[in-house]
Amino acid sequence: MNEPLMQLRDIDMVFQKKGKFLEQERSFHVLKQINLTIQEGEILALVGESGCGKTTLGKIITGLLRPTKGEVIFEGKSVYHALGIGDKEYKAGVQFIQQDSYAALNPVKTIYQSLAVAIKVAEKGISRLEMEKKMVDLLGEVGLLPAEMFLNKYPHQMSGGQRQRVLMARALALHPKLIVADEPVSMIDVSLRISILNLMMKLNKDKKISFVYITHDLSTARYIASEGRIAVMYLGEIMELSPLEPLLEKPLHPYTQALLSAVPIPDPEIASKQGEIPIKGMNLLDLEHRNRGCPFFQRCPYAKAECENTPIPYKFYEGREVKCLLDEPPIFKKYY
Ligand SMILES: Nc1ncnc2c1ncn2[C@@H]1O[C@H](COP(=O)(O)OP(=O)(O)OP(=O)(O)O)[C@@H](O)[C@H]1O
Ligand SMILES: [Mg+2]
Predict the structure, then answer these.
(1) Cβ of 53 less than 6 Å from ligand 1
(2) Which atom of ligand 1 has the smallest separation from the CA of 65?
(3) Strand partners, 14
(4) Is 60 exceeded by the pLDDT of residue 217?
(5) Do the Cβ atoms of 107 and 154 come closer than 8 Å?
(6) Could you give the C-alpha distances from 168 to 14, 117, 204, in angstroms and in order?
(7) N or C: which end of the chain has fewer CB within 10 A?
(8) What is the pLDDT of residues 258-272, one digit of tens each?
(9) Whether residue 163 has its Cβ less than 6 Å from ligand 1
(10) Are 40 and 93 in contact (CB under 8 A)?
(11) 13 in ligand 1 pocket by Cβ < 6 Å?
(12) For residues 274-283, average pLDDT
């Protein structure tokens, strides 16, 4: 197999939460023992409920946050040198697209001005004429046509979907190899979501750009990662990592099973046949009081005493990874 585009090794992220007094300062273990490999040209969907650390992980992948512990490797090179400065190639090669497209764009700059900044970074000394041509190409690539109609607009004069496309164009200006898109469609009308997902899939196919698609919504994850992989996160840990099809066919982690069984099924006949997995209560562990063992311990219907405080190793099954002490998950059930 080729060298992976990117690797995260044993990543931990601990935030300090400041109180009024020094003794009130608490540490907040947001990510724990994250190991993740991203291959060139692949689409990986990162799924998990709100607050589980998806954005934090996305920012670590893109170098916007430096992890407390662990190694970030891009194209075989560790990106943090002794001085703590991220690699230049890495910075351009890995782009982050955030959820709130309005906040991501400078409100007093036109689209032309916003794109010009990115293009000048990638193409030093580019002439005005070449830059304009480049902008038209970029906007065409993300489906904003005719491009001339958009260049002089301000962000507030565009729809959420159009702004997301501008963010995509701005990222493309830097010739990225990987784009981390953090909930890019959650603030967009449902009717337009699919077109943004299709755009990412097209860029993936045509330009071989890898995508990490962050979402709390399993249905969009299934759509975009139909040929890719899914990482299921729970309270700062990756519980299961698998190509999509086998994960749907046979979810290995009890949390993945719970997640799949919570997706509403439109056909009442099929829905009535599908049992729900009996989650034990809604008590969530929180990140400040995590146990040493499985974070799903309190809700897991199959939890054993040792799950609470034994650090859980990953098990590997045919290209899949699962972080669970169970020998075999008790339910093998097709949910769709
Ligand atoms: N800079 C920070 N300092 C302290 N705590 C932080 C910081 N950034 C995030 N957190 C905390 O880390 C946890 C994970 O946050 P994160 O934004 O990564 O979650 P998320 O999975 O993206 O959630 P959502 O689905 O709501 O976007 C949260 O409890 C959050 O409050
Ligand atoms: Mg988030």
Answers:
(1) yes
(2) 1
(3) 29
(4) yes
(5) yes
(6) 30, 14, 12
(7) N
(8) 888 876 656 666 555
(9) no
(10) no
(11) no
(12) 58
